[in-house]
Amino acid sequence: MLIPFARELQEATLLRRYKRFLADVRLADGHELTLHCPNTGSMLNCAEPGSRVWVDLHQRPGRKLPGTWELVETAPGELACVHSARANAVVAAGLEAGLITPLAGIQGVRREVTLAAGGSRFDFLLGEGEDSWVVEVKSVTLALGGGQGAFPDAVSLRGQKHLRELIGLAQSGQRSCLLFCVMHSGIRRVRPADEIDPVYGELLRQARAAGVLVLAWSVLPTPSGLQLAGELAVDCQP
Length: 238
What we know:
The chain is an alpha+beta fold.
C-alpha cells in the first residue's frame, strides 16, 4: 500500500539541521533555502551535512518557511523519512485497510484519544468496550547497520511516560499496543536503544511482560510516497 506525497518532492543537498526544526538545503540549481524540519528527535545518523535529501516545496499564506524536509539518503540506496508525523498517517491507512494483521478486523478507528484525566493522549483507539485496543505509534529512523534499528534516538521522557501508562492499562485489562513504525529502508529488525535511553529499554521489557503487544511495521520511503511493507521482528532482550 503506497501513501503518496501530496506534491512531487525535489531533490536537494543537506547543508545543516539546527534549532531542532530548521534545515538549510541546496537545490539542484544551486539555490539555498531554509526549510522546516518536522522531527523533534536527535535524528542520529539521519542529518549528516552533504546528504542527499528530498523536500516538499510549498509556500502557503501565513507560513514563514517555503517547504518541508521529507526524506534523506542515509547510505547508498537506503532512504529514511524524517517527517515523524507521517508515521501516524501511514499507520492509520494501514489500520483502516486491515493491513496491520495483528490488529485487523477491529471496527472503528479513533485518533488522539485520552482515556483518563491527566493521562497521555494516545494515537489510536480501535473498537469499543472490552474488545477495544489502545495503540501508541513511535517513528523509528535510527539504523545501526546490519539491518538493525533502534528506538529512541535520544532520551525520551515522553516515550517513558507512554510506556508506564500502557503498562497500567494492560494490567487493568485494557488491550494495549506499542507500534514501531519503521520508516527506514535499511532496517529489518528493531530493539530498544538501551545505550541511549536505558530507562526506556527497561520499561519496554516491562510492558511486554505486562501484556502490551509490541509490534514493528516496515514502511519503505520513496520520493513518490511511503509504502507500507510488513511486520518486522522486535528484540527486547537487554
